[in-house]
Specification:
homohexamer; 9 helices
């Protein structure tokens, strides 16, 4: 079996109770344990902070739909050549958007994806945060406001792009392997 | 007074108890509240996750000294043109390394800083994680092993570089302003 | 219906006999007409030269398997953010390699794909041809020879990468849309 | 004598009749055989497709003058550091434009060449196709329309830039040597 | 003691009279000899031309204040990762601007520095000269004119950025070490 | 007549005596006044320093031949897209090397020029100084030493590349026009 990480992967039985519980809950819901949970588990305090942060950004209410948040993840992870995040979040995006084509489109070149002008503006900004955040300027905020985004929405876009800047780097360094299950998820009609 | 963020900055009295307590503790210790605490406070769940993650990486025991961890922060934040992180963590680096010159050297061009070959290898790797993590390869791990780094140390280097990839982007987008106090900290003999 | 090109798309009945015959043959074999045939058809002489060149490179005998040639297409098209070529040739790669995961892996980051060291060397070279051909040097030829590639194989790798440098640009400029059928091809067990 | 290619160069007598005829015709017209004909000849099917494509783009009627088409070749080949194409097509450009200075100007920095605003717009677009085709957008088409280019002209510009994206890569990888004759052609008054 | 250059550093007594006089004058004024004077001294003709050029640009009258000229030096030297120039001219900038924060701000990310819109336009242009001078265009001149810069001021900005493009490269190649004194200069209230 | 600079060009009669004398001497020798002399003349102190520096580097004795120094100019000016310097110094290079092909070869892609391995190492280093001087390291010095370059020769290479980093920027910003005479110089057998 191919390794899922360049770093040690603990066994479930050796994990702290809360970490194990979180993993079992995901397994219950998804039918398998996404490898990111296993690859990060050997550092319990980091694991806890990572998923607390993730959930605070991806599960909260707000002006962005859950599918739109996944678009941000997929577009910026594509720009960072992150295999784990493109494949795993591509699956989630297909499911949340109920669209079997959207993830590949956004990952390869979001400029040609079947998205709305508002989503295009959102991804233009997310990519700037991912690739040249030092140059973000008032004009970028104005462009988002023109598409109806509230300032809190802008924070969401930026924070998601920033969080996955971290996440992509962790996955790239550890050579985290996407579970085979992700590749096909959301591609077939229910 | 110049704004410390493009986003809302709450008043201390309006914050959840644990967030306020954390901020007051920092103020007690440092004599002022670093702006990152105020700028992130309007999103309490993200604030909690951010600092839990930060502490898990920067305060833990391990093969890297605290000064070395700050070197990673300063070098990669310099590469990302992040004013807040270079200035604030530059101050911390000067203090932890007891060296008034090291932070400017590392921020501008770590290749010419007064560091050991081991630290040079550490920063070469951290910069690769920051700037082209998709290309990290076994040869990079071998170079670190040759300098005596354990695999857990490598995780630390990578995770710190990754965490500040996020942090730099948050600070750049919010135009987070470093406190004036940081600029002089650690520059004068005690 | 979404446009398949920014340029005029002729109707089959208006095409020269040989162009129409080629298109009908593809339709017969694949069950649909890949949009590249329609998008290039409004310039019959270019259409003929394009597919003659394509077939000379992709259908010939030689030291590279057909799956390997498609790997070159998918990896370099990913680097050029070409939606049409990644999606369409990704499908062909999955089929030729009889591997439902390989195309996404190669498109996102071939360094982490489930490929042999020989294929890794092949893709390293193809990417150099795609991205910085001016710097190709004798050392690159030596690296390929060390993996057992003959000089004629090297030509094949280079010529395929070069041909799709052209093809990616044509698809990007025309905003050529991949057929929906490609996305799922080769992902399900037969 | 310096090699004209890293790959085998066949002798004329060993070539298929049509390939040899094409080469002899060029020799008749130019007084020498440009090395690209010899360097590509060892693969007859690719040779045929390459020159059929070349002629379809460079010899056809249309909204671009022949000199303008050569400008596209020289500018984009300069950007790709392609010695063969800059030298050989620089010669052709000088002749077609009846201007001994224009080729060097366009190759080094077309922004400062003695060209019309319409030609400047044409080269701006050609360079975008050469260097970042994934970002070509409707605004680029509008800029060309504003200078009077028809949609078919835009295809011509894009297709020429794309064809030489391929051609530059073939010449760079094979280290194709420009014939000495090209350097002086078109520089002296007739 | 750490070397101040990779190249030979002559002793004062071995220098031509005018070179030694210049160095002693600086020492008299500053209290120490900035290392650039020693590092360049082993080539007296180049030393003379370098400082004649420097003084012609930095000491002359004109539309830019001396602090503004130093801003150009610090911003462009930051972009070139030049340790000597950022540290030494950062000190001079702090003193000339009577602002202990400005040098670090400008070096790390001038877009977020406490400067006027006019100074922002000046630095935008200086950075373009430093990083992509081939693309400087009439629109850049118009943007400067809109902020009230005269054409002679524009020359000053460009010439300072160009001179330090040279200076940064000399310092980087020679690994010129900034004097320890510079780090603290201008940071404390008088 | 096309302007030779975006900035004022003084008349000879209005220039200081030494500046005029220098210009007349060049005219005497070359048969025409290279535009760089006129374009820089409106700032006499900078003119004097510029040419004093130029002569100190280009006319001195040393381990590099005059032709080799011009190779450095042409290669780095090509990398900076500097029309004036490539055309004017290309002419000088052809004359000094007595080789009508060398300048175009070096300007477009020095890796494929007809030069010695020693000259190749020299240009590799010059290009690193021009394009990423912050990364120059001991290994670069070792590579030059291996080709027989003395440390003083290395200074010459670096200083010439650095001086033309300045010169290219001045020419690019001022849109300095190369004299028509340069284009043909050194291309015909004497």
């Amino acid at each position: 079996m191919t390794a899922i990480s360049r770093f040690p992967v603990p066994e479930l039985k050796d994990l702290p109770e809360d970490v194990r519980a979180r993993i079992l809950a995901v397994q219950e819901k998804s039918g398998f344990v996404p490898n990111v949970f296993l690859a990060l588990a050997h550092r319990a305090p980091e694991f806890r902070a990572f998923f607390a942060y993730h959930d605070a950004l991806m599960e909260k209410e707000g002006g962005l739909t859950k599918a739109e948040r996944e678009m941000i993840v997929v577009a910026t992870s594509g720009a960072n050549d992150c295999q784990y995040c493109v494949v795993a979040h591509g699956a989630i995006l297909r499911i949340r958007a109920k669209n079997p084509l959207i993830a590949d489109q956004v990952a390869i070149n979001y400029r040609k994806a079947d998205i709305t002008p508002r989503q295009r503006a959102m991804l233009d900004f997310a990519m700037k945060v991912a690739l040249e955040s030092h140059a973000v300027a008032e004009a970028d905020f104005a462009a988002l406001a023109a598409e109806g985004f509230l300032r809190e929405d802008v924070w969401d876009i930026a924070a998601i792009a920033a969080f996955f800047a971290m996440s992509n780097r962790l996955a790239n360094v550890s050579s985290m392997r996407p579970n085979d299950e992700f590749y096909l998820m959301g591609r077939l009609p229910k």
